[in-house]
Amino acid sequence: MTSDTLTATTQSAAERFAPLFARFAEGVVAREQDHELPRAQVRDLLEAGFGRLRVPVAEGGEGLDLVEFADLLVDLAAADSALPQVFRGHIAWVEQVLSLPAGEYRSRWVERVVAGELVGNAWSEVGDGVTGRQQTVVTTRDGRTSVSGRKYYTTGTIFADWTDATARRELPDGSFETVTVLVPVHAEGASVSDDWDGFGQQLTGTGTLVLDDVEVDAADVAPFTDRFRYQTALYQLVLLAVHAGIAAAVERDTGAQVRGRTRSYTHGLAPLVRNDAQVLSVVGEISATAFTARALVRAAAQAVQGAADTAHLPGTDADREANVLAEIRTAQAQVVLSETVPRAATLLFNTLGASGTSRAKDLDRHWRNARTVASHNPVVYKQRIVGDWSVNGTEPPFVWDIGTHASVDAAAVRSQETGR
């Protein structure tokens, strides 16, 4: 962050967390090479109050708005791109709690957040489940409510005290509704595996959660339609901050590598690489990408904050327009950063020789992480959605799902692929 662009609140938070982030950055390469989950770093963040930054001061938090918070997420991602993503589910659940009216339930969860409890995410499922129909089930019998199912892409859950899961619940008429349920991660019947095998963001704990008749509080089960409306934009904002942090890290590491080089090519333009105009031109493009990425995060965060500001006006034109803008701005930023940040992470290698590919330096992690983040919520769909809004004024979808379409015979597709 630069001090001339920050509010006093943001500056104070940035200065307080800066030493912690610097320590995280020092060990990030070793953690990735050893596949060491950042458990200690997550706990350090919680103890420092990172999980309560959005909670109002009057309720024991820091009271940051989403623009201030997003700036801090970028700084954290520059130190370790896994850490903001670990907190992504927690950030969304805190926002849901803050959207609730005053009362015992809200107070209970605010107290947990302020005390340093962490909430993970468990919305996704893999396999042949049909879109719109969760395979995870919430059941209530004899006054006991429990949940059973299997979740994947459960980012943050392996570090958490709770996980925010989606499921289906049978209604009295025999139909089903989609619900959310807060599940205690360490309860009997719950188990989490670190089996995420993606080539990037490897330390986010994005693995499998198995729930075998896990008892939950009935009060923690709610219709999915009760969620705050701008949740998808908020989820995307966190990923945008990760991208901007990666871009900042690419600029930082490129500068360090170029400044430290004493070997240069005979067909270069200067005795020292740091003075070679060709190399400096490449570094300039990387720097411009990092600057643009943070600016886009701030602009997107302003739009999402606008939706938060109108959340108490459901059903109004002001709330609808704010939510449309939040979704569109985060999508526009995603379209740009999904291309430019991985490109910047590739350009890094144009400033170095073959030594830049050394596994000990782990510079390729920036591209792998950026490309993995760009794979969330595939950008090709966002391009179409933004284009349809721009040309036709079509409202974007605020919630979507992934799975097997009801018209598709998954077994038949697999047999065609295998030739059986």
UniProtKB/TrEMBL annotation:
The keyword Cell division does not apply. It holds the Pfam family Acyl-CoA_dh_N. Signal peptide: none annotated. It comes from Kineococcus endophyticus. Residues 23-117 form the Acyl-CoA dehydrogenase/oxidase N-terminal domain. Residues 240-377 form the Acyl-CoA dehydrogenase C-terminal domain. The keyword Oxidoreductase applies. This is Acyl-CoA dehydrogenase family protein. InterPro entries: Acyl-CoA_DH_C, Acyl-CoA_Oxase/DH_mid-dom_sf, AcylCo_DH-like_C, AcylCoA_DH/ox_N, AcylCoA_DH/ox_N_sf, AcylCoA_DH/oxidase_NM_dom_sf. Keywords: Oxidoreductase.
